[in-house]
Design brief:
The chain is of the alpha+beta class. It is 19% helix and 45% strand. The protein has a single domain (74-412), classed as Beta Barrel (Porin), CATH 2.40.160.10. The chain is elongated.
């Protein structure tokens, strides 16, 4: 019935065109079905187009978010690096005006950028960190200049247990007062004291591994296995300081062992003792086949009570008697100093230091140096210091004896 009504309606619409051929009901129905199919196809395409537009819109939004977040993520990574990376350093300039009182021609009147040092450190996580120290000495290193570029420290430290740490790389030997803490604003005098310089010998670093930590409240230990000294028998060396290899293609036939105990359980007081042993400072290269073992013992005390402070240190090397084939008396090398100081206020402090040292203490003749230093430090800020001191030195017969004035400027950050 519905089909007939639809056919009659269409026939009525077409009645005005008398010349047009009137389709039959079946033809009209087929036309309607084709149109309906085309409408469904168009609807389907429209739906797919809408879906593609939605997907494209999501991608555009995601791309915009990524573009917006990219600089933020970059800056966040940079901020994280900056937070975990530390930079510091220190430096010192010296002026020395000293007369050769032994009658020689070794007067000293010079100004020197003695050291310029940069620290770089990085905290990888809560337990693992890196530390390094790069130093330029005497300003000029190229073209035959007197200076050197030295990598004094470069090591990884790991907190492997509570209050206990391990380290590996190039590090300062745990000995003496100045060897590990030698920034110019932390000690009196333009020059580092002669005992720690010539006997210990600071600054002294080696390559190896070690552990340190706290045994009990205020009682700490250090144990290290590292490259040792090399005394060149053929060249006639005998001073311990000349045997430092500085981890530069260092001979490693005979490494050294160092152990230290340090007590800081009383406020203002530090007591420490270090023992080091090496089986052969010739590093198996003496042409006579001798092996010269070496043992270092060092002990020191540092005390501060209000404005008054006192430092005292003793160091002694015992080398096998065969060292006499290198230099008479060098089988015993020792020294000590005592240094009282008084800080008037945050800016100004005075000190006196008496030192004795001998790199041929095993000889029967007099080979000992002694020196008296008097002077002051003026701290412009806690980490910027001006120094003025006078040294009065007595040297063995035939050795250069220098008396005079030293001026210094030092800083750390």
């Amino acid at each position: 019935m519905k089909k007939h009504l639809l056919a009659l309606s269409i026939a009525g619409l077409c009645a005005g065109n008398l010349n047009a051929a009137t389709p039959s009901v079946e033809e009209m129905w087929e036309i309607i079905q084709q149109q309906q199919s085309e409408i469904q196809r168009l609807k389907s395409q429209l739906t797919k187009t809408d879906e593609r537009l939605e997907v494209a819109e999501v991608k555009v939004e995601a791309t915009a978010d990524a573009v917006e977040k990219a600089p933020s993520q970059k800056y966040e990574k940079l901020a994280d690096w900056v937070e975990k990376t530390s930079i510091g350093g220190y430096g010192e300039i010296h002026y020395n005006n000293q007369d050769d009182e032994s009658g020689g021609n070794n007067d000293k009147d010079e100004i020197d950028l003695h050291r310029f040092v940069l620290f770089f450190g990085h905290q990888f996580n809560d337990k693992v960190r890196f530390f390094s120290e790069l130093e330029v000495e005497h300003s000029l290193t190229g073209g035959g200049g007197p200076g050197e570029v030295e990598l004094e420290q470069a090591y990884i430290e790991w907190d492997f247990a509570a209050n206990h740490r391990a380290k590996a790389g190039v590090f300062l030997i745990p000995v003496g007062i100045l060897n590990e803490t030698h920034e110019p604003d932390t000690f009196y005098g333009t020059e580092r004291n002669s005992v720690e310089k010539n006997i210990i010998p600071a600054t002294w670093w080696e390559a190896g591994a070690g552990i340190n930590g706290e045994i009990a409240p205020g009682l700490n230990y250090d144990l290290a296995f590292h490259s040792g000294l090399f005394i060149d028998a053929g060249a006639g060396d005998y001073k311990i300081r000349d045997g430092r290899q500085k981890a530069a293609e260092a001979k490693a036939d005979d490494p050294a062992f160092t152990a230290r105990l340090k007590y800081t359980g009383i406020q203002g007081l530090e007591l420490a003792a270090t023992l080091q042993y090496q089986t052969d400072v010739y590093q198996s290269e003496n042409f006579n086949g001798d092996e010269i073992d070496a043992t270092l013992f060092e002990a020191h005390a540092a005390y501060q009570n209000g404005p008054f402070a006192l430092r005292a240190l003793y160091a002694h090397w015992d080398l096998d008697d065969g060292i006499n084939s290198v230099k008479s008396g060098a089988d015993e090398q020792e020294g000590f100093y005592i240094e009282p100081s008084f800080r008037l206020n945050d800016k100004l402090g005075f000190f006196a230091r008496y030192s004795e040292w001998d790199n041929q203490a095993g000889a029967s003749n007099d080979t000992e140096y002694d020196q008296l230093d008097l002077g002051l430090n003026y701290w412009l800020t806690p980490h910027v210091v001006f120094k003025l001191d006078y040294q009065d030195q007595d040297a063995p017969n035939g050795k250069t004896e220098l008396d005079g004035v030293n001026l210094g400027l030092g800083w750390s950050f």
